[in-house]
């Protein structure tokens, strides 16, 4: 038999009467927004409609990595730097980066028409993962670089960058088509990053219920294990108490945390002095690429943390070969494991 929500009310008649009155009396002063409607049906699968070649998107965390990615011919780049002031220099590293934006676009369009192997470089920059009250100045600092767009991590950033080109990062936790439709409709995001909590079967389910151009999938990364308010750099490498007197040791030192089995996990700080610990072992979903391509998925992201320029180049080249079909996913992770010593594993995108 079915159970109504009213069956769960207290047995006391006076309490029931009061709750019934509350539940049945409309609030004429309510200013709540009407529930959004969605332009996807979570129960309807969409046929794959691939209309373009697979694209490799690269996230870098320093200028040397950025230079290597540009050299490798990557068209779409994400920058996540500890110091947002460095984003201006990143924008200047674009081909023609010191020219005015309009003339740069016109010049690139002419070049692309004759040289499709050298696409127009687009750089999105990332604000810190957390935005607290009083930290709008950090977002202003990020915007001052005049990037091509912004990688959005939270709701404050959705509002702050609402008039700019934006892509939703994994922290928006897009794990189902209703969530994807909400962010696309309400905020007009160009693309969304699929949640990191999904295994391959759950990811396939998400992709088959969303248009092909809505999502990007991260297939290579050092998984962020936790994000914290406590700053290890300030606590152990400084006599200070906060950013006003710590001397910014995070800009001078590299810190790793060794676990009980000897793996060294990478520690990074952000502009708000919060720290993220990244898994010391990079993870890959390379063996699932064929399945994702068959579903029409075309945008794939790889992320770097502390890799050298040479490691960045080698890794990008291997993934380019993978998307071109010249090597298999198994060959890729074995090759990287042996040559670049990145410690690539089968990762979070695995058989469910």
TrEMBL record:
Tell me where on the tree of life, at the top rank, the source sits.
Bacteria
Give the region (Disordered) as residue ranges.
25-50, 91-113
Pfam families under this entry? Peptidase_U32 (PF01136)
Compositional bias (Basic and acidic residues):
96-108
Its recorded name reads U32 family peptidase
Lineage from the top down?
Answer: Bacteria, Bacillati, Cyanobacteriota, Cyanophyceae, Oscillatoriophycideae
């Amino acid at each position: 038999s079915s159970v109504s929500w009213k069956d769960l009310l207290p047995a006391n008649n006076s309490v029931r009467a009061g709750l019934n009155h509350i539940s049945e009396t409309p609030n004429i002063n309510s200013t709540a927004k009407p529930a959004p409607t969605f332009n996807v049906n979570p129960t309807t699968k969409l046929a794959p409609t691939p209309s373009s070649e697979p694209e490799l998107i690269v996230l870098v965390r320093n200028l040397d990595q950025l230079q290597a990615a540009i050299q490798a011919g990557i068209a779409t780049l994400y920058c996540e730097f500890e110091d947002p002031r460095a984003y201006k220099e990143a924008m200047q590293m674009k081909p023609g980066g010191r020219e005015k934006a309009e003339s740069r676009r016109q010049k690139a369009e002419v070049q692309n028409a004759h040289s499709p192997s050298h696409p127009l470089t687009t750089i999105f920059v990332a604000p810190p993962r957390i935005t607290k009250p009083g930290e709008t100045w950090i977002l202003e600092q990020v915007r001052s670089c005049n990037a091509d767009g912004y990688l959005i991590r939270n709701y404050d950033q959705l509002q702050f960058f609402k008039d700019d080109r934006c892509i939703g990062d994994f922290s928006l936790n897009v794990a189902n088509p209703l969530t994807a439709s909400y962010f696309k409709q309400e905020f007009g995001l160009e693309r969304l990053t699929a949640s990191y909590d999904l295994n391959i079967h759950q990811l396939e389910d998400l992709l088959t219920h969303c248009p092909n151009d809505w999502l990007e999938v991260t297939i290579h990364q050092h998984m962020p294990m936790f994000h914290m308010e406590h700053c290890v750099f300030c606590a152990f490498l400084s006599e200070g108490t906060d950013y006003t007197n710590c001397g910014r040791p995070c800009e001078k030192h590299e810190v790793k945390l060794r676990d009980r089995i000897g793996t060294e996990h990478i520690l990074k700080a952000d502009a708000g002095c919060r720290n993220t610990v990244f898994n010391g072992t990079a993870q890959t979903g390379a063996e699932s690429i064929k399945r994702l391509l068959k579903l029409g998925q075309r945008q794939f992201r790889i992320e770097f943390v502390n890799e050298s320029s040479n490691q960045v180049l080698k890794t990008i080249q291997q993934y380019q070969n993978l998307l071109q079909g010249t090597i298999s996913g198994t060959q890729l992770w074995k090759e990287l494991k042996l040559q670049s010593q990145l410690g690539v594993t089968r990762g979070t995108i695995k058989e469910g």
